[in-house]
Amino acid sequence: MSDETGGWFADATPDEPERASAAIRQRSADAPGDWSTRAVDAGFAADETAYYDALHEATLAATRTAVREAERADDQQLMHAVRAMDDCERTANELAERLHEWAGSLFAGAGTGIDGARDVADRDPDGPAEERAVALAERVVELADEAADLRAHIERTAPEVAPNLATLAGPVLAARLIALAGGLESLAKKPAGTIQVLGAEDALFAHLRGRAPSPKHGVIYVHEYVRGTREEDRGSAARALAGKLAIAARGDHYRGEFNPAIERQLEERMATIRARGEADE
Amino acid sequence: MSDLPAGVERRRFDGEKRLATQGPPVYGEPTADGWRAWDARRSKLGAMLETGMDTGLAGGETVLYLGAASGTTVSHVADFAGPTYAIEFAARPARDLLDASAPRDRLFPLLKDARTPETYAHVVEPVDVVIQDVATRGQAAVANANARFLDEGGLLLAAIKARSEDVVADPSAVFERELDTLRETYEILETARLEPFHEDHLGVVARRRA
Ligand SMILES: C[S@@+](CC[C@H](N)C(=O)[O-])C[C@H]1O[C@@H](n2cnc3c(N)ncnc32)[C@H](O)[C@@H]1O
Fold first, then answer.
1. At what angle do helices A128-161 and A171-181 cross, to 10 degrees?
2. Residue with CA at minimum distance from ligand 1 atom 26
3. Strands B127-132, B16-22: parallel, antiparallel or unpaired by DSSP?
4. Which residues are CB-neighbours of A99 under 8 A, at least 6 positions away?
5. Probe site for chain A from B70, B84, B122 (most A CB atoms < 10 A)
């Protein structure tokens, strides 16, 4: 059976829900047609009732798949955003350093970093060299502002993409972990020990070549639970955090629902680890 | 006041007369005797019916609904209409739209962009009525692009949100501009502001021109 007119059912039969669902998602037509009549004529459905029943099933399946794809695609957007944010921050800081050297030779008391660049950008240039330096300062400020906007965007979207991870790690660290793993799905498939050292790949390879101790943590170092724990216990803290992050990533990828129990369990575990330090004092 | 479409009635919920349709509940609305209240404050089409606009709906029509969101309004539409196609382009609300559609065997949810009708014209048949509530920039242009699903004389029921077009301009000026764009394809039959149910929204009843 075939229908040359381009309806969604053209190369499917009612017992092939996968194909019908793919056709609904991927095909197109310039103009609508009397699809129910044509589907019956083409032998796709016995009558109009059977046609609409098949359409109902196919649209539900197609939309369920499309929703899942769209949500998965969102982690791709999050990865782009966090990488762009890091690039903007890094570039702004590098340029601010260059600017600081330059501005120091032109203006008295030029400050350092982005704040220094803001000061320079506000100055009235006198002569062509100052004009260039002030213009560069303006670019630095714009880049820093863009990084801030990207951060706000990540803070808004990460909880949608990965509610558990964003709660446990904070939205930006959650986005960074997803980016380092290459997506939420691959993060969800990584063991806790790998998540613990994500972002410390150089140190890890040095260790594997026998030239360094094994790293205790990668980017999760910025998390308060790691950074705020005393040196001797930092390894345990990083391990405990990574374990719960792995559970969070799996929950976000496979179920997509928020589970407050993960955070409670981590809080309890951290209290135990930190109590050791207090007992020693 | 014009007649309600068959399948829509004013019924008493907690002592208050409200619009209602018959079907499984969707958004926590009050129910009684198999009827569920249709909240005009959460539905522009509900507000158009409440404010007495002549929607031309009789019940049993085939419908293309643009901007279905989580299915609040389109579920009521499917309760009294015939085959109903629901277009929504955001994944989050579409998830709830799936739940509203599952028990309604003539409600067909589609995750598609209403600005590109060719991505669903292979599924949607010509319909009697296009209902639109997309609340995004270029609302009249969306209605024009979807006129291909209507035969001559087919109905458009649209809610136009002033703020979606321009957050600062005077709403009346925005409405005039959108109506001008609509006139390229439609004859405007009736317009009314949807206050007090929805602020800065214009309800529009229009008919596809030849
Ligand atoms: C005001 S809400 C609709 C509420 C819904 N009509 C109801 O009463 O239950 C507007 C919806 O239109 C959707 N939307 C906006 N632009 C769209 C487009 N181009 N295609 C499809 N949906 C769109 C938005 O995602 C949003 O869910």
1. 90
2. B69
3. unpaired
4. A116, A117, A120, A133, A136, A137, A140
5. B122
Written as six digits, the tokens of A196 are: 């613990």
How many Å apart are CA A213 and CA A92, to the nearest integer? 33
Q: How far does B118 lie from chain A, in Å, by closest CA?
A: 5
In this predicted complex, what is the ipTM?
Answer: 0.93
Q: How confident is the model at residue A4 (pLDDT cuts 50, 70, 90)?
A: low
Tell me: the pLDDT tens digits for A110-140? 889 999 999 999 999 999 999 999 999 999 9
B148/B84 Cα distance (integer angstroms): 16
Q: What is the pLDDT of residues A134-172, one digit of tens each?
A: 999 999 999 999 999 898 788 878 877 898 999 899 889
Q: Which residues pair with A135 in a beta bridge?
A: none
* CB pair distance less than 8 Å for B123 and A63: no
Q: What letter does residue B126 receive in the DSSP assignment? A: P
DSSP at B161 = E
Do B122 and A52 count as a contact with CB atoms less than 8 A apart?
A: no
Tokens of A235: 């390894």
Write down the pTM of the prediction: 0.65
